[in-house]
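Supplementary notes for students who missed Thursday's class. We covered one full example, reproduced here. Read the sequence, then the structure, then the short commentary at the end.
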Amino acid sequence: MEELVSLCKRRGFVFQSGEVYGGLQGVYDYGPLGVELKNNLKNSWWSSMIYERDDIEGLDASILSKPELFKYSGHEETFSDPLVDCRSCKSRWREDLVKDGKCLACGSTDLTDARAFNLMFKTPVGPVENEESFAYLRPETAQHIFTSFKNVQDSTSKQIPFGIAQIGKAFRNEINPRNFIFRLREFEQMELEYFVRPGEDEAALDYWREQRLSWWKKQGISSSSLEIYDVPPDELAHYSKRTIDIMYRFPHGLEELEGIANRTDFDLGSHTKNQKDLSLSANIKKNDESTMRLAVQDLDAKKWFVPYVIEPSAGVDRGFLAILNEAYTLEVLADGKERVVLKLRPHLSPIKAAVIPLKKNNEGLVALAKEIKSGLQSLGKGRVILENTGNIGKAYRRHDEVGTPLCITVDFDSLERDTVTLRDRDSMEQQTVAISDLKQTYSELLK
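Structure (token representation):
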């Protein structure tokens, strides 16, 4: 983990937020390369959910939430962690982290009894601060999907089964943020709510488990780093009938990378019963509690039912950390020197190619390099940069370390013969390519 944290700061992937003021625990900023990798990861997820399928629609819901939403979802009552205080050093810990009744900071056994600590952030709404005028910062993106269910279905005419996907920020007042960007107070989620008929939920859960495993492997996560954990009944969330966790071997241990939960009709049922009718029919009687829970009409059977929900939910930050950890490679070269390589899949790499003039500030070389850079950038495959440093060896090492798949050297032969030299990140092999063929070769190598 120390090597990853050092790399992230040194090369501009992740910084401690507010570091000049001592930092804010559990909050991080993504730097120039980090934001590119993070966006590429999110784009890959979005493409797999929305563009490659016809049964899922996208949503970008608000972060501020009316209190009623999380009251009726059960979060106000259940979304809490047991908290203990150390009377000796005044530190606070989640009860499940405390081993053998000893404080993790000082080793004292003089701890308070556990008490519930609600994880949701509250913020005032309007000019007057009081207990009646506040909103929650959402602790998950899911609830806004459920309350927008009717609007999405009405506007798209989707029939069950179908899904609603969302990527967005969530906020949890974690007692002990830890392990770099693994557990944060401000984080980002990639969540899908997939609506199915009651009775089809177990098969759908198994289907999405295999889909999500396959997707993570396409991001470069090896099978040996993943495990499936079927969450025991006594550990399930209040809304879950069954949950399967995809576990990853992070630097600090085996932890959850993504959860896939069978939420049954808990959420749609709760919101229709307690807040408003989400059904498709204006003819359903509002005072009939048995029908207020019905949200979808089965046109064939002429019956109403509340859909069950399968929820694959992945943390962007955890995925970012897992992909970095998986790609980080330390190699010993033939001359005994070491090089650090981020063997990222090309679609995730923050920089797709670096165009490097052999001599710094040489007018002819730099002009040609800029022209090549502009032509490759226009293909829309990601960021291409001009590396006008004049030191080829250092440029190669830097781009190995940040995961750039290709380095393109523009030398004096380029001016005379219209060729460039392509260097592959992983093999370090070089090939000469005609500039006229460069766009096609570049596109093929990035597939």
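Commentary. The longest helix spans residues 32-51. The chain has a mean pLDDT of 89. If anything here is unclear, bring it to office hours.
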